[in-house]
Structures are given as C-alpha cells and as structure tokens.
Amino acid sequence: MYCYYYTDLVLTLALFVALISLYLRVFGELKVGQYLHWVAVLVLLGTAMFSYAIVDQSTPRLSTAFAIELSLNLYFVGLVLTYILWGSVLKLRETRTRLVQFVLSLGLYFSAYAACYALVDMAEKLGVVQYMSPALGCLLPLSWTITIMRHTEESRLATAQLVAVQR
Fold first, then answer.
1. What one-character-per-residue DSSP string does 23-86 give?
2. Which of 1, 26, 54, 68 has the least CB density, counted as fewest CB within 10 Å?
3. Residue 26's closest CA among 36, 14, 41, 38?
4. Residue 133: domain span
5. Domains identified in the chain, total number
6. In angstroms, rounded to a whole number, what is the distance separating the alpha carbons of residues 149 and 144?
7. What is the distance between the alpha carbons of residues 65 and 60, in angstroms, rounded to a whole number?
8. What is the pLDDT of residues 44-101, one digit of tens each?
9. Which residues pair with 44 in a beta bridge?
10. How far apart are CA 93 and CA 90, in angstroms?
11. Rounded to an integer, what distance in angstroms lies between the CA atom of residue 67 and that of residue 75?
12. What distance lies between CA 78 and its chain's CA centroid?
C-alpha cells in the first residue's frame, strides 16, 4: 500500500511538471516562461506546506499520510490549473491539435482522479470505489498515445468549433 501511494505521488509530481510544460507551450509566444516557472514553484511549495499542515495536526504517521495528502491536493490543484489552461487555450485561440488534445485529456484525468479521491473519502466501504483510481490510471497514457498516433505536430484545430453552440 505504501508503494502505491509513494509512486502515486511521483506520478502526480510528473503530471504537475507536464501541466506546467503545457502552460509554457501555450504562453511561449508571450515570453512569460520565467514567471511561469516561479509561479509553478510557489504553487507546488504552497500545496506541499498546506498538505504538511493538515497531516501534522491529524496523524502520527507523517510520511505516508503526507504522500497521500499531497497527491490528493496536487490532483485538485492540477484540476484547477488545467481548467485555467483550457480557458487560456480558448481565449488565445490555440490551434495546435496535439496541444489541445493533451490539455483536454489532462483535464479529464485530473477531474476523474479528484472525483475518485472524493468518492473514496465519502464511500470507503464500497468495493468498486477502491478499484476505480487504478483503472483510471490507464486512460491518460492511452489518450496521449492515440493523440500522438492520430495527429501530427503540424495539424491544426479551430478551438472555436469546440465551444460553438448550435442554435
């Protein structure tokens, strides 16, 4: 069990880095890369300190509970940052298909994982809930693999079509 939560924390940190690299790609033309690095470090440190403060008050097993709490909080922060990035993609009218697909699949992944952690906290007794998060772990690599195989780096997509409402 410890191995699962420690490796989940490493995966979550890797996804946070991937999310920040997507931010750098979207905002690359605006020359704000240095600011994004500092904001990312501050968000990560703030989330870690918040997680430590919660765990420090509630449990004697600090390292394991910290890994679980930090993963949970990073999934939520990743969820919020992904939706902010999606809004930026729409606002800046980003057209790179791979980038748009990566942001969308990362948003769905973070949303599903945050919902899984919430369900585990609310309905711990249900057997199905504990198997949901490992099953969801397959979806992001599958989604990114399909995106890489179907779309070239040069392919473009009109993001206005993604949010257009038929009247």
1. HHHHTGGGT-HHHHHHHHHHHHHHHHHHHHHHHHHH-S-HHHHHHHHHHHHHHHHHHHHHHHHH
2. 1
3. 36
4. 2-163
5. 1
6. 9
7. 9
8. 899 888 888 888 776 666 667 788 888 888 888 989 999 998 888 888 887 788 888 8
9. none
10. 5
11. 12
12. 4
Tens of pLDDT, residue by residue over 124-166, are 666 666 677 777 878 888 988 998 888 888 777 766 555 655 5
pLDDT tens digit sequence for 20-36: 998 888 888 787 777 88
Residue 99: how many other CB atoms lie within 10 Å: 19
The token duo for 2 is 């410890």
Question: Which residue reads 């993604």 in tokens?
Answer: 162
pTM above 0.70, yes or no: yes
Token duo for residue 28: 């690359």
